[in-house]
Design goal:
The chain is an all-beta fold and 117 residues long. It has strands at 2-7, 10-12, 18-26, 33-39, 46-51, 57-59, 67-72, 77-82, 91-98, 105-107, 111-115.
Length: 117
């Protein structure tokens, strides 16, 4: 089992920045990729960014150039730096970890990000 604990959400004005962090605990040896998803009210949960164990990254088109995902394997943490935030970025953000071939998939409890003036 892997437990994921997120921190860093909150309220920010358009154009502002937030940094989300996620710490993994438990059977971390099983983790391959880590990432962030978001879910806005009435919408499906969507991938925001993902980073592999070797550091390869993939981003949703809507956040490319604005968000940066990074990972510290020694500390078992993944971070999402969000810049130039827009109102449409408002959602609950979930940390995700998965084993190779997605045999095991873990989710954090979610943290609210609200972008509003």
């Amino acid at each position: 089992q892997v437990q994921l604990v997120e921190s860093g959400g909150g309220l920010v004005q358009p154009g502002g920045s937030l940094r989300l962090s996620c710490a993994a605990d438990g059977s971390i040896f099983s983790i391959n990729a880590m990432g962030w998803y978001h879910q806005a009210p009435g919408k499906e949960r969507e991938l925001v960014a993902v980073i592999g164990s070797g550091g390869s990254t993939n981003y949703a088109n809507s956040v490319k150039g604005r968000f940066t995902i990074s990972r510290d394997n020694a500390k078992n943490t993944v971070t999402l730096q969000m810049n130039s935030l827009k109102p449409e970025d408002t959602a609950v953000y979930y940390c995700n970890a998965r084993s190779e071939y997605d045999i095991l998939v873990y989710w954090g409890q979610g943290t609210q990000v609200t972008v509003s003036s």
